[in-house]
Amino acid sequence: MNKSCILLLALAVSCGAPALQEYRVEVVNTYPHDRGAYTQGLFFHDGKMYESTGQYGTSSIRIVNYETGESEKRVNIGDQYFIEGSAVFDDQLYVLTWTNHVVFLYDKDSLTYNLTKGYGRQGWGLTTDGTQLIASDGTSTLFFMDKNLHVERRIKVTMDKRPVYYLNELEWIDGKIWANVYTKDYIVIVNPETGIVEGRVDCTGLLPRTEYTNTTDVLNGIAADDHGRIFLTGKNWPHLYEVKLKKK
What we know:
Layout: H1 3-15, E1 21-32, E2 39-45, E3 48-53, E4 60-65, E5 70-76, E6 83-89, E7 92-97, E8 102-107, E9 113-118, E10 126-128, E11 133-136, E12 141-145, E13 151-156, E14 158-159, E15 162-163, E16 167-173, E17 176-181, E18 186-190, E19 197-202, E20 219-224, E21 230-234, E22 239-247
Parallel strand pairs: 1-19
Antiparallel strand pairs: 1-22, 2-3, 3-4, 4-5, 6-7, 7-8, 8-9, 10-11, 11-12, 12-13, 14-15, 16-17, 17-18, 18-19, 20-21, 21-22
């Protein structure tokens, strides 16, 4: 290979997307989790863990003691609604619905209902970077919205230059968007400016198969607390896991 070819190859590598970093999870602590909670949204705010749960007839929003798995406050939602992701933004708790095309707003401390807003697409995951709400709708698109749910910008999420579909529960961690991928045992770490997946977290075997029942569903639920600890769970899982990442 001549020098000009070597130079072109080096330029192509330096100008391309960053290499995908692969991680695995290592369990640090295991806590109880309500096996009846079909987890849709999970996050910490001001030291409290919030959880929104889905399914028609059993949807709820909760403030949970993560160490015991018990709900300190809980509001059950009407049977006609399937609750999805949630986040505290502008001092209110925003709660998505799956196909009802509405978003509910609650007082973040008392969980008292405040307002219903229209929403023009399916609700899946929700998080915030502190200045905007960030939502998924089951496609490869993430939507950045103001407090009135007006879309200010959007990005397409790609991994190895291919779109990543079924983006579900979201969490903002250290300037990146972490997203569950529905039905997959991994989490993607997304650059919020480019949409490029810079990391993939392998969670295979996090819940041992010996603990599955006929109601156990997929990995879903990412939360980071004020101390930088990361917690994961799934739909109808009996455990909440505190984990750390290890490079593969």
